[in-house]
Amino acid sequence: xxxxxxxxxxxxxxxxxxxxxxxxxxxxxxxxxxxxxxxxxxxxxxxxxxxxxxxxxxxxxxxxxxxxxxxxxxxxxxxxxxxxxxxxxxxxxxxxxxxxxxxxxxxxxxxxxxxxxxxxxxxxxxxxxxxxxxxxxxxxxxxxxxxxxxxxxxxxxxxxxxxxxxxxxxxxxxxxxxxxxxxxxxxxxxxxxxxxxxxxxxxxxxxxxxxxxxxxxxxxxxx
Length: 223
Fold this sequence. Notes:
Elements: H1 18-25, E1 39-54, E2 57-62, E3 65-70, E4 75-87, E5 93-98, H2 103-116, E6 122-127, H3 137-142, E7 146-150, H4 161-173, H5 181-195, H6 211-222
Parallel strand pairs: 1-6, 6-7
Antiparallel strand pairs: 1-4, 2-3, 4-5
């Protein structure tokens, strides 16, 4: 994530230019022109409408084997929104569950994020340009050490916290059954606690794109 020989505890830079911040956020080597000033890069987003579903499940025979299965019927018990802030340099995640996802809810979450970080640190927050993330001038004026940086439209997948949301869904929520919203909140809270015991930063990897893939992509754009 950082230049060779640098500490993994925090990325260090001074510039607040959006492009430079996003370069660091995407795991590129730190430009040498940056002045050594403590700062933290956070990837922030919300995962809305996480469903609290009760699924009848059991074991059924399948030939010579016995497999676990779920019934097609289920009961909905409500939904929650998960706000999350992933620290890019360490992989640690701060999370908060809420029933709604208004601008007020978002800023209340950001208050908790600011309170949980060391005093005097500059926080560069990378997030998508959802309307609830904007028009926060009054809040930013009260927190001059926090800088918001928005990903381009239709490119929220570039935000690294989306990777973590995918991990949470695959490893903890997929196929799970919860009798109440409180049970779902406790489940996600326990997953956050376990995940943060051994966090690790995500590292972008270069993948070779072959000619056939490029041709297929071009064909899709023209159809």
